[in-house]
Amino acid sequence: MLKILMVAAELAPFAKEGGLADAVGSLTKALSLRGHGIRAVIPLYGRIDRGAWRLRPAGPPLPVPMGRLGHLACTVFEGRLPGTGVPVSFVDYDPFYGRRGIYQEDGEGYPDNGERFVLLSRAALEIVRRDGWRPDIVHVHDWHTAAVPVLLNTLYRDDGTLSAAASVLTLHNLLQQGVFDKGLMEILGVGWEHFQLRGLEFFDRVNLLKGGIYHATRINTVSPTYAREILQPEFAYGIEGVIRDRASDLLGILNGADYGEWDPETDRFIAAAYSAADLRGKALCKKDLQGILGLPEDPAVPLAGVVSRLVRQKGIDLVADALPRILGLGVQVALVGSGEPWAHTFFEGLARERPDRFACRIGYDEALAHRIIAGADFFLMPSRFEPCGLTQMYAMRYGTLPIVRATGGLRDTVENYDDGTLSGTGFTFDDATADALLDTIRRALRIWGSRPEAVAGLIRRAMAKRFTWEAAARRYEDLYGEAIERSPEGQGR
Questions:
Q1: Is residue 145 within 8 Å of residue 124, measured between CB atoms?
Q2: 4 and 37 in contact (C-beta within 8 Å)?
Q3: Among 63, 93, 185, 286, which residue's beta carbon has the most beta carbons within 10 A?
Q4: For residues 421 and 92, what is the distance between their CA atoms, to the nearest angstrom?
């Protein structure tokens, strides 16, 4: 079995902004259940309740070298990942992490985010050095911890504890790359010779993700299609050449879904339990959702749900553009989420104008998210890009037919309905336009209104699909093995 160090900016249930936390937490748990020895490291953010999670100081303050900032004295707290025996180390440095947000406040990113996450990267390595724990694999996620492979290949190359470790960098989203003023080089401390085209330099600034991609032993994305897409400028945001340089070391591994949390047979949030064999409870969930949101309680009216961050990446502007026409088709729409201010204003305004057809709740409401996914007939997810996506997986498990743009993980998980073969688990479209979304909704409504047997088959197939973390963990085990073979120690075996 392997010894794996997992380093990330987020880890559910301790600190979560989005899908990154769920993915890291679920993968860590799945690998632990398969017998691997895992340790995880995240920052001790101000929002983390030390008492509730029974966190305890682990040893004296740890001096972490931070270049021109000197050694920063960090307290390391230790806890356990719930449901596992996995130890989690929390890096406590109040000037960096004792804030309301993880990355930002009031829509503005913290100006010292570069320093904050370089500290996390360096502290994670210093923690295992102090403990004498020799990982086989150091697995890091997105730009926040992409400095770790850089540090392993430079400052820690000859370190007795870490010199044999291979590294894996998982790319969850290339939109954010960790680009900062080049003065960050003096905090990284790896030497200006690494501020170059095939290193950290990016238009005379530091790009932490770019550096991590070049230095990691292996890299992967969270779906096979996204691994292919990021070779193109549309999806790579300026670093497609970097990805192409490492294309032979790139793999797409589809995330899993947490079916312990998302299961219509056991869901504590929904009005009635149901299964593929007995869908009567789904009709009750629809009635409950309509009642909660003040929509007319009519089982014959098709109801579409949206549970999303209200941002352009998620295609929420396409939803906004098409929504008046969608409502004109006789559809009810229920939306919950938060994001860009214009979206809040638009959707709240339309809800006031069309309370008979449209209801929205701005902000994240976990119970309402479950109720929408259980009570809706269709689930809208027209993302411009989607590295993996989880809500379409949840929707299928609940028999709520996804209507998605065929990109990234959406393409890999939702099979378009074929009227000739009566196959498929949802409805997909290619163009990132409101018209394409609207046309696909019209197609879905035609089937829904005239082909009940086809809809029953769609629901049955969708509910039977499973995307498990156990399957993902097996793929990561293979990736780890390949990374170890390419590491200096592996090549010497």
A1: yes
A2: yes
A3: 286
A4: 57
Structure-token match 């999670």, residue found: 53
Report the Cα–Cα distance between both ends of the chain, in Å, rounded: 17
Residues whose CB falls within 8 Å of the CB of residue 213, separated by 6 or more in sequence, listed in order: 146, 169, 171, 219, 239, 242, 243, 246
Segment 50-57 long-range contacts (CB within 8 Å, at least 24 positions apart)? 50/77, 53/14, 53/79, 54/79, 54/80, 55/79, 55/90
CATH fit for domain 280-467, picks 3.40.47.10, 3.10.20.740, 3.40.50.150, 3.40.50.2000: 3.40.50.2000
Domain boundaries, the chain: 3-256+470-491, 280-467
Enter the pTM of the model: 0.93
DSSP string, 234-264: HHHTT-HHHHHHTGGGEEE------TTTS-T
pLDDT category at 19 given cuts 50, 70, 90 is confident
Assess contact for 372 and 292: CB atoms under 8 A: no
| Longest CA pairwise span in the chain (Å) | 70
Nearest by Cα to 283 from 478, 346, 291: 291
Three-state DSSP class for 111? coil
Smallest CA-to-CA distance from 140 within 302, 264, 20 is with 20
- The whole-angstrom distance between residue 465's C-alpha and the CA centroid of its chain comes to 20
pLDDT digits (tens, 9 = 90+) for 308-364: 999 999 999 999 999 999 999 999 999 999 999 999 999 999 999 999 999 999 998
φ/ψ of 26, rounded to 5, equals: -70, -40
User: 231-288, pLDDT tens digit by residue?
Assistant: 999 999 999 999 999 999 999 999 999 999 999 999 999 999 999 999 999 999 999 9
How far apart are alpha carbons 178 and 118 in whole angstroms? Answer: 10
> Which residues make Cβ contacts (< 8 Å) with residue 143, sequence separation at least 6?
117, 176, 177, 178, 208, 209, 212
Best CATH choice for the domain 3-256+470-491 from the list 2.60.40.10, 3.90.1150.10, 1.10.3720.10, 3.40.50.2000: 3.40.50.2000
